[in-house]
Design brief:
Radius of gyration: 23 Å
Strand content: 15-25%
Number of helices: 18
Shape: globular
Mean pLDDT: 91
Low-confidence stretches: 5-42, 48-61
Distance between the termini: 36 Å
Structural class: alpha+beta
Largest sheet: 8 strands, antiparallel
Length: 656
């Protein structure tokens, strides 16, 4: 793609009348009246709080060290049903914005773009202009699903050892560490991604889609309990950056608290520049210079600068890729291809699980919280995750640089291969640390990194049945904790590369740092379809995705199994007890869930006890997943969308 043109204004059809169903979390929603897009029906998509209350405490059980973001408890969300369009995002203000765009005749792409701009303002700990993302789009008329890669790239001057040494003649770690140094910042891709999807599938004017975010940044909004907890947890790091300190801390150094008003006028000015001058303004000119200057900042020699240049920004392109689609029982499940490992890992785990009768292992006493998971079902799902992570950690990276083994995706998703992998599972005993598959060629080394991430997710379906799932991130909470003069927090996504280019045996790692390469991700926006006679996607059935670093893969897999195998509705699948595994003996159970007995390390919890009896090293940890699920249900008379937002974050669903 060459330079992005400033999108021309497009005339949208007049909105249809209809009843908006909008269900909100009880948080402070200051500034709501300012976010209605021009041309949309005012207040029809208002997300009305029932009152002001903080999220339920995380029951005195901390998240694991290195967890993606601070866990803020569990607050039940209603199930939303809609017949025309629906949106689920990570924040009530973003959901309201998406809903208003849809009510005003916008497409799913329009609504996703507008909502993501708002999330950049109201969820700065999770995503923003300085980060990247992955997006799947379903074109209902053409029956076409496409993947859009807006992942960050390594600067052209990067070296393979940038994350472990300052230089060849100074073999000490970057200062103060790799994550908080300039070496961690990749060339941001989110702005290019949003512009590309809008140019391809948008209908509303570009400027209009930025207006809600500009208003919120300029006029401010009330800090929610979740954002307040995130600011407090990162206050020391934010205080070290002058621009971030001025935004998120009071003059006396206290972090902003719930109910305080967060005003971001520098960010508002940046968004106005993008609205007036188009997306190219981000990658050239003063905004690009601001990014390069922030990456080069040394803070008096206390921080190792990065290597990003203006040429790196000018050269950035998001990439349109073929979606990774695989059959699962009566459906086709589509996800992101590499450089995200999410789509492939989910598809491999599903392929393993297809050999088992999961429907017989439905949770017991199913209620709004998803019921009590069957221990054998959790055992099989987590061991399937271990097998998928074993292949992920050895083979998956940016395939523009390092090809997958054998015939690529076809080999890793081959039905016979996955059946052989499934045969390793023992219903009575956990596999522990799973071996990767062998493909008859010299294998790269094993990179066991499980990256954390400050991440967000949204799911949108429009009147025409088009759907968008978008997961975006700036990596750690508040990214690299460095902010440009223009109010943009910058990512630290390059730490998703392996810290060293080779393993202990000297074998090169597939996910090693290289110039221009995109770091491996775990983001897994996912679409599900009923197939046609040839097995191709034919009709939209479900959309899902979540934040959560490397736990994303487990959360998305849980939601798919919950709906497709266990018959849960969207709310129940989002709320269900979290169970997570990587490639190792540890199984994580979500301690924030009301059906988990977390005292004494879960000694009295039936699920925990049953897993431990099968050899799982169970650890309880409060989760910060943010599933945004939409399911299409049809009977002889009509089809209805049901939507559920994860009770572990402040997201909500709305629709008509």
């Amino acid at each position: 793609m060459s330079r992005l043109r400033h999108p021309a204004d497009r005339r949208a059809p007049a909105p249809r009348a209809g009843r908006i169903v909008a269900l909100g979390l009880a948080v402070l929603l200051g500034g709501c009246a300012a976010v209605a897009p021009r041309g949309g029906p005012p207040d029809r998509c208002a997300v009305e709080p029932a009152g002001v209350e903080a999220a339920e405490p995380a029951r005195a059980v901390a998240a694991l060290p290195g967890a993606p973001e601070v866990a803020t408890g569990y607050v039940r969300k209603p199930l939303v049903r809609a017949s025309s369009y629906v949106a689920v995002t990570a924040h009530p203000l973003a959901t309201r914005t998406a809903c208003q765009v849809l009510a005003g005749g916008g497409t799913a792409a329009d609504a996703a773009v507008a909502a993501q701009w708002v999330l950049a303002v109201v969820e700065p700990q999770s995503s923003g202009l300085g980060g990247g993302g992955f997006l799947l789009h379903w074109d209902a008329a053409r029956r076409a699903v496409t993947a859009w890669d807006g992942r960050e790239t390594a600067p052209a001057a990067s070296t393979p050892d940038d994350l472990r040494w300052i230089g060849a003649d100074e073999r000490v770690p970057p200062r103060p560490n790799a994550r908080d140094s300039g070496r961690s910042v990749g060339v941001p891709g989110l702005v290019h991604l949003l512009a590309a999807i809008h140019a391809e599938h948008g209908r509303r004017p570009w400027r209009e889609l930025l207006a809600p975010a500009i208003a919120l940044a300029d006029e401010g909004f009330a800090v929610s309990p979740r954002l307040a907890a995130s600011i407090a947890a990162s206050a020391d790091a934010l205080a070290r950056d002058a621009h971030a300190r001025g935004v998120f801390l009071h003059a006396d150094g206290r972090p902003l608290a719930a109910g305080d008003r967060l005003v971001q006028r520098a960010l508002a000015a940046t968004l106005r520049t993008l609205a007036d001058d188009g997306p190219d303004a981000f990658y050239r000119g003063s905004l690009a210079r601001d990014v390069v200057d922030a990456v080069a900042e040394t803070r008096g020699g206390a921080v190792t600068p990065g290597r990003m240049t203006l040429a790196d920004l000018a050269a950035y392109r998001s990439v349109r890729r073929d979606a990774l689609c695989a059959p699962y029982r009566a459906h086709v499940v589509c996800g992101m291809p590499p450089p995200s490992s999410g789509g492939l890992a989910v598809a491999q785990a599903l392929g393993v699980l297809e050999t088992f009768d999961l429907a017989a292992l439905r949770p017991a006493a199913v209620d709004a919280d998803g019921g009590r998971p069957d221990p054998l079902g959790v055992h099989l799902v987590t061991d399937a995750l271990r097998l998928a992570f074993a292949d992920r950690n050895r083979y998956v990276a940016d395939t523009d640089f390092v090809p997958l083994p054998g015939a690529g995706v076809e080999s890793l998703l081959d039905r016979d291969y996955l059946r052989r992998r499934a045969a390793r599972l023992d219903p009575a005993r956990s596999i522990g640390t799973a071996p990767p598959g062998e493909f008859g060629a010299p294998a790269p080394g094993r990179d066991a990194g499980a990256p954390r991430g400050g991440t967000t997710h949204l799911t949108v379906v429009d009147r025409d049945g088009n759907a968008v799932v978008l997961t975006s991130s700036i990596e750690s909470a508040f990214g690299s904790r460095r902010m440009t003069r223009g109010g943009m927090l910058l990512n630290n996504q390059l730490t998703d590369f392996a810290p060293a280019p080779v393993d202990a045996q000297g074998r090169p790692l597939a996910n090693r740092l290289e110039p221009g390469k995109r770091p491996r991700s775990s983001m897994a926006p996912t679409l599900v379809f009923t197939p046609d006679a040839q097995g191709r996607p034919a009709a939209f059935a479900m959309a899902t995705g979540s934040p959560g670093g490397a736990t994303i893969i487990a959360h998305v897999l849980k939601s798919l199994v919950g709906v497709l195998d266990w018959g849960l509705d969207a709310r129940q699948a989002a709320a269900l007890v979290a169970f997570v595994a990587f490639d190792g003996p540890t199984t994580i159970v979500g301690a924030e869930h009301p059906l988990v007995e977390a005292r004494d390390g879960g000694a009295a919890d039936p699920l925990v006890a049953a897993l431990r009896s099968r050899g799982h090293d169970v650890r309880l940890a409060a989760q910060s997943s943010g599933l945004a699920i939409v399911v299409r249900r049809c009977d002889a008379a009509r089809c209805v969308y049901e939507a559920g937002a994860d009770p572990r974050r402040e997201g909500v669903a709305a629709g008509e």
